[in-house]
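During the no-cost extension, the postdoctoral fellow (Dr. R.K.) reprocessed legacy sequence entries with the updated structure-token encoder. One reprocessed record is reproduced below for audit purposes.
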Amino acid sequence: MNKLTKIAFGGGCHWCTEAVFQSLLGVAKVKQGWVSSTEKNNTFSEAVIVLFNNTIDLKTLIHIHLLTHKSTSNHSMRTKYRSAIYYFSKEQQEQCLLTINLLQASFKKPIITQVLPYKNFKPSTDDFQNYYASNPEKPFCKNYIEPKLKFLLQNFSKQVNHSKVNHLSPTTHPNQQK
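Re-encoded structure tokens follow.
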């Protein structure tokens, strides 16, 4: 069995973030909840911890993360929805910073996503875990999560586990943040 690596992502609603990463090949588990970091970012913010194997690389996960939330918008809800990648090692920190710098050229606005040390995690309650998989017909899922999954199908098709999104047809993501 492939060794699993973990990284945490925050940016928007954790229901959306959870569904995005659950749909990818190589992602073994997504833990949904709240993550805190250190110093001025020590408060909990909605996020997910992603456990992945070498079927998908960290650069691709970061790229997908940046494109599936408002990674260039410093809006008023950033305390609850901190745009961040939480690293678990110095190597990850360096790789995250390098990847963001490389991807910046493909964005029209500056990426505001922070690279922060992981400190702590509080899981969501059971009734909110696997939210999209359990509630795909709910209006929130149809309006906010499905467009992100369709965007993945169109732009990252080789990384998508099609059995998890076979009910969708590809289309352009309306909120793509390039």
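Helices lie at 14-22, 58-67, 90-103, 131-134, 139-155, 162-165. Confidence is low (pLDDT under 50) at residues 170-178. The remaining legacy entries will be reprocessed before the final report is submitted.
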